[in-house]
């Protein structure tokens, strides 16, 4: 089938999710896990062979409004999983996939209509600047390094952990499952071509750093083999900068999800956030390779 070469508005992405659930009811279903500050639905697509005992993998995109390649990549992954389901390797069909392409729907729409480089959500603060950085609002080491208490900052952490519905409902949804359910939490961002693992809040590393690093490097190698694109692998704080309150740290530190990654998609800065749509296909393929690698690691139980 024809590959789309355009960035889509929220309505279209949600329409795609609904279409998937309608067309492939045996493996797809949708759920609204909550509503954003401006009351837009927080909509996810579940893809599964129906076995409730499967390991779960959470994938989100669009937490930062201007990172348009992220929802595009996540939507591409969903499409490849569903359209190619019968031909997928067993390790990918025995995962329950939970896919949330636009985690910041208000900001995403604002970046289309008003300010292309908008990052945060659309929380109003009276006469002060609007917006909370959702990736500083999660409840692990909230308020630490790389976060700001000023509403006008691009990295404003919010008034308290999970003050924002967009982060609160993700944590609520995941916390509603038995603790062993989710084995991976993949958060897609841009840009820079990095595969990052905890911690983000500080330079320390996790006990199982070797596992996180090995799977990340496997993914990086497979990606380079398939599209030629290179990703830099390392912990968030050491590779990028320390920043507390990220979704990945919460997934690892509180939800107990083993494979917690933030993937910074392309490019490395030529176009940055304003990446032309002709690059969607490369990024989409790389996203699928990443999901494949993580699913394989889960199947191997390490
Ligand atoms: O700063 C961020 O939130 C992410 N980079 S971005 O350019 N997309 O804004 C990196 C987040 C890495 N993870 C943590 N710091 N926990
Ligand atoms: Zn981001």
TrEMBL record:
Belongs to the peptidase M14 family. It comes from the Eukaryota. The chain holds residues 775 to 1076 of 1092 of the full protein. The active site is at 264 (proton donor/acceptor). This is Peptidase M14 domain-containing protein. Residues 6-298 form the Peptidase M14 domain.
């Amino acid at each position: 089938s024809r590959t789309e070469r355009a960035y889509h508005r929220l309505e279209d992405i949600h329409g795609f999710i609904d279409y998937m659930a309608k067309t492939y009811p045996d493996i797809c279903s949708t759920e609204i896990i909550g509503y954003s500050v401006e009351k837009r639905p927080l909509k996810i697509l579940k893809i599964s062979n129906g076995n409730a005992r499967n390991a779960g993998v959470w994938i989100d995109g669009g937490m930062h409004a201007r990172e348009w390649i992220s929802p595009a990549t996540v939507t591409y992954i969903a499409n490849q999983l569903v359209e190619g389901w019968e031909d997928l390797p067993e390790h990918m069909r025995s995962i329950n996939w939970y896919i949330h392409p636009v985690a910041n729907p208000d900001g995403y729409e604002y970046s289309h209509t008003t300010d292309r480089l908008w990052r945060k959500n659309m929380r109003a603060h009276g006469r002060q600047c609007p917006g909370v950085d959702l990736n500083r609002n999660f409840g692990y080491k909230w308020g630490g390094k790389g976060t700001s208490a000023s509403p006008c900052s691009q990295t404003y952490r919010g008034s308290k952990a999970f003050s924002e519905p967009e982060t609160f409902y993700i944590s609520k949804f995941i916390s509603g499952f038995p603790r062993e359910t989710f084995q991976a939490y993949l958060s897609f961002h841009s840009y820079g071509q990095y595969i990052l693992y905890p911690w983000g809040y500080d330079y320390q590393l996790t006990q199982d750093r070797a596992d996180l690093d090995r799977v990340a490097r496997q993914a990086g190698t497979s990606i380079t083999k398939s599209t030629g694109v290179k990703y830099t692998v390392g912990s968030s704080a050491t590779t990028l900068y320390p920043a507390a309150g990220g979704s990945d740290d919460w997934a690892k530190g509180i939800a107990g999800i083993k494979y917690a990654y933030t993937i910074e998609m392309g490019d490395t800065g030529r176009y940055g956030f304003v990446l032309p749509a002709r690059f969607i296909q490369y990024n989409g393929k790389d996203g699928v390779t990443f999901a494949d690698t993580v699913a394989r690691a889960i199947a191997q139980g390490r």
